[in-house]
C-alpha cells in the first residue's frame, strides 16, 4: 500500500535491547500524558485565569483553542522543517520547549503573554505527538507494536483520568500559576527521563511536501484520515457538551458530573488497552467495531439516557468505545504506510487536532441554533459515516 514516493526506511524494527526499549516506550507514554494534560488543563481553570488577568471566560477559552490549532499545523511542519535531525534530539528539544512554555504561562503578567506561551505549547504538542505516535515500530518487535502503541496512547487516557482533574484541583487549592508551574516541573522530569532512556533515532526518511501529499494516494491512509476526521469531529461536537447532556437529559445533579467524567476517562483507559490487545490480531475489525459502538452509544442517549442509571451506563460505554480510537487509528496508519510511518502519522495528528477544535466549534453553533440533543445525533452520524468509510478497506490484506 505504499507509493513510489515512499522510499524504504533506513531504520526499521527495534534498535535497542528489550528491557531498555520498553522503558523508552513508558517514558514516551509519560510524554503523551503531559501533552494532553497541558492542552486540556485550562478547561478547568478558565474562570480563575480570566479573573486574574481581567478577561472574559470566552476570551480565556483561547487557552484551549490556540494550542489545538497550532498543534494541527505543527504536526506536519515540524518534521518537515527539522529534516533528517535525530528524532531523539527533536523530542528532547520539544520537551524543553514544553518545560519553558509552561513556566512562561505560570509567570505571564498579562493575557497576551499567556496566549503567546500557549502557541509554544501547541508547537510542542504537534511536533512531539507526530513523532511519538509512530515510535512503537522503532522500539519494539513487529508483534509488539499494537501493545506498545496502546501504552504510548495510555498517556492520553491517564491525562483525562488523573492529569487534568489533579491539575485543576491544584489550581483551585493553590492558584492557577502553581498548576502550570507543576506542569513545567513534570515536563522537566520527562525531559530528563527521555535523555536517560531514549536511544538515537536516525530519521528514517526526509519528510517534505511531496512525501506528505503522496500519502493521500495511499488508499489505506486516505481511509484512516477520513475516519479520524469524522470520529473526532463528531465526538468533540457532542462530548464538549456532555455536562449539560447529563444534567438536562439524564437528570443527573451537577455535583455528580465530575465523578462520572472521571469514570468516562477510566473506561477510556480500559478501552485503550483492550483495543491494543485486539489490534494485534485484527486491525480492520477492531477499528470498525469502535466506530460502530460510537455510532450507537451517542444517539442511544436520546432513548435510554433519560434516567440517572441509563445516562451513567451509556457514558461509560461511550468512554470505553472512544478509548480505542487513538490507538486503533494510529495502528491503522502504521499498517497502511509501513515505509512512511512518520509522514502518515504527521498527517494523522494534524487532522486529529484540527478535528478537536472544529468539532467543539460546530457543537457550540448547533447547541445555540438548534437543540442540545442535536449534537448527539451529529456525533452518532459522524461515527456511522466513519464506519461506512472503514468498510471500504475490508479487502485490504495489510489491515486484516
TrEMBL record:
State which residue ranges cross the membrane.
21-38, 58-82, 89-113, 119-141, 148-166, 178-201, 221-241, 261-279, 311-334, 346-366, 372-390
> Which PANTHER family does this entry report, sorted A to Z?
CHLORAMPHENICOL EFFLUX PUMP RV0191, PURINE EFFLUX PUMP PBUE
Highest taxon, organism lineage: Bacteria
Q: Which residues form the Major facilitator superfamily (MFS) profile domain?
A: 24-398
GO molecular function list? transmembrane transporter activity
Coarsely, its chief localization is membrane
Name of the featured protein:
Transporter
Q: Which UniProt keywords apply?
A: Cell membrane, Membrane, Transmembrane, Transmembrane helix
GO CC terms in record: plasma membrane
Membrane topology per the entry is: Multi-pass membrane protein
Where in or outside the cell it occurs: the entry states: Cell membrane
| Pfam families xref list | MFS_1
Q: What is the lineage of its organism?
A: Bacteria, Bacillati, Actinomycetota, Actinomycetes, Kitasatosporales
